Here is the input.
Amino acid sequence: MQPDEHNKTPKENPGYETSDANVPGVVVFLTALALSLIVFFFFCYGMGKVINYALEKRDGSTDHWHKQVDTKALGNMATSPEMQQKLAEMTQHFPTPRLQTDDGNQDVADLHAREDLLLENYSWINESQGQVRIPIELAMQLIAERGLPVTTPSATNAPLLTGETKPEIAIPLTNGFARTAYEQEQLEVIQKVVGK
Here is the structure.
């Protein structure tokens, strides 16, 4: 090889663009793109009108339940008493149950207030029989002083019905690792009887 061959550049590849950009082709492409966007816009607009017309035809005429409310007059729905008052005025004509405007916090507060009235005050249960509901603090104090009422064991000694037998509990109920109080009592009774 001769050193001059490396320095030569072939004529087919001069190292730069030999022709300019195809300006008419770029203009045609951009024009077609703009026209397709315009056609697509009008197509979507027309489809929206057709869909809205079909929905209005299906839903029937506008009545007081479906009328549009102008919400621009309300402004932003901030959590302020003024806004909640406006919203409450707007919803007063709806029958119950109404939408809760405060996540139910007021309903829970009202429920607790009614419960507190029953728990902290005297009230009649049955006025004709003289039954009175007493405050819970007084009721707890009376139970602490007097204790709970004791039930009579007559229900446990009730006569057996036809075909019933008195249940017998086999000892031991457990494997002996942790005996129940009933098992311990029965074992003590058996030891007393055997021990005599």
